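Page 47, continued from p. 46.
Same chain as before, 352 aa.
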Amino acid sequence: MTTAAPPAPDPVDHVDERLLRTSRLKKLLARPELGSVVGALAVFVFFSLVADSFLRASSLGTVLYAASTIGIMAVPVALLMIGGEFDLSAGVLVTTSALVSSMFSYQMTANVWVGVGVSLLVTLAVGAFNGLMLTRTKLPSFIITLGTFLMLTGLNLGLTKLISGTVSTKTIADMEGFSSAKALFASQLTVGGVDLKVTILWWFGLVALATWILLRTRFGNWIFAVGGGADAARAVGVPVFKTKIGLYLGVAFSAWISGQHLLFSFDVVQSGEGVGNELIYIIAAVIGGCLITGGYGSAIGSAVGAIIFGMTSKGIVFAEWNPDWFTFFLGAMLLLATLLNAWIRKRVEATK
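Result:
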């Protein structure tokens, strides 16, 4: 008695899904920053219609500057969120960086660059502290960085009043090295008749570097893996602790850049500045497509989120509206961008 041969397997069922071609439309829809780009276009069109001065060339530099002051910090915050963590101390760390540079230079009567160097070491030490506390204690990053936020807020105010006698630092504009440091951190250049702050170049450079890290390096793969699931990432050999510490050091480095810009733009620093800015950095990253749960997002998306912030904050001024409406628009954009990103992801997953 002969048995019937089993049916030949369908070749389609045995094709590795990595070899299947994906349409350009699906690739576009899968991009984390798609929702933020749509939102940015909507905001641009809206303020172009309601504010006559919004489309002027001079307004472009103003909008980009406002975006860059947020974007410099939004880039590493986005990478940290992709890695599944938060940093609530990022806003006051910027002020700490500026205060250390100013007070060390003034009190030690040293070259300004000495203060800048000491500030870099102190700021990186705070970032390392956050990372080490997170990995050693296993406490949530929300708790760790909230504690750092409170400690830095108190130190910024207490030490400034103890050393300077007031809540602000003394001017260092007449000290050696100030002009060269200002040229690096707070200068202005003119391109095509438009005045642009050097922070815009810092911002673009950080976005390019972060994008290269995420898409072209092993460390970028580690960031996505850690954010997707730390235990699973550790099981396949990803150095989870080192990755998270590295991400906090990245936030600290950008805080140092922003702090030096703050100092060399205004000569003095108010010790109470920076409180609340950490939420703006997180909002820019979320608007740009980063998930609160980690494992998804992009540096480019954080840049688009910062641009939306810049257009909204300055567009309200150009439209001569009450600036109190800014927080309303920011909250509305946060909700709309999050809903749009969630809808796009569902559509992409449904077509796979």
